[in-house]
């Protein structure tokens, strides 16, 4: 038996409390301009998923490009990061003190922070 997963279900969603609105807000990472307010977490998630589903259908009907879900994207494992000279020096010094390459040191720091 094959289960068909709706396109909107493949995207990355987040539900958080909005003090300004006094409600939960549902958002979608791949569609940052879309959101849905509801009195419950479940309502916010269902609402934003419905909006995303509607937008995806509209994009497809008009022959426009639909963003790929983050889970379906491929990543090289490389990205460039520009930091100021002072921070670069601090990181290089800290890496040297731990007998690590700058790359290894930054990966360790990023991993520890997550």
Task: Give a description of the structure.
The chain has helices at 41-61, 85-97, 102-113; strands spanning 13-18, 23-28, 31-38. By secondary structure, it is an alpha+beta fold. It has a three-stranded antiparallel beta sheet, with helices on one face. Helix 2 (85-97) packs across helix 3 (102-113). The longest helix has 21 residues, at 41-61. The protein is elongated. The mean pLDDT is 93.
Nutshell version of this structure?
The protein contains three helices and three strands. By secondary structure, the chain is α+β, with helices and mostly antiparallel strands. Strands 1-2-3 form a three-stranded antiparallel beta sheet, with helices on one face.
Secondary-structure blueprint of this entry?
Blueprint lengths: L12 E6 L4 E6 L2 E8 L2 H21 L23 H13 L4 H12 L1
Antiparallel strand pairs: 1-2, 2-3
């Amino acid at each position: 038996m094959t289960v068909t997963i709706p396109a909107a279900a493949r995207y990355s969603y987040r539900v958080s409390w909005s003090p300004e609105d006094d409600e939960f807000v549902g958002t979608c990472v791949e569609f940052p301009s879309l959101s849905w307010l509801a009195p419950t977490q479940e309502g916010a998630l269902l609402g934003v998923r419905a909006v995303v589903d509607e937008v995806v259908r509209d994009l497809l009907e008009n022959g426009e490009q639909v963003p790929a879900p983050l889970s379906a994207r491929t990543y090289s494992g490389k990205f460039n990061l520009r930091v100021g000279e002072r921070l670069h020096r601090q990181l290089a010094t800290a890496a040297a003190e731990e007998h690590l390459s700058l790359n290894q040191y930054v990966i360790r720091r990023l991993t520890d922070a997550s």
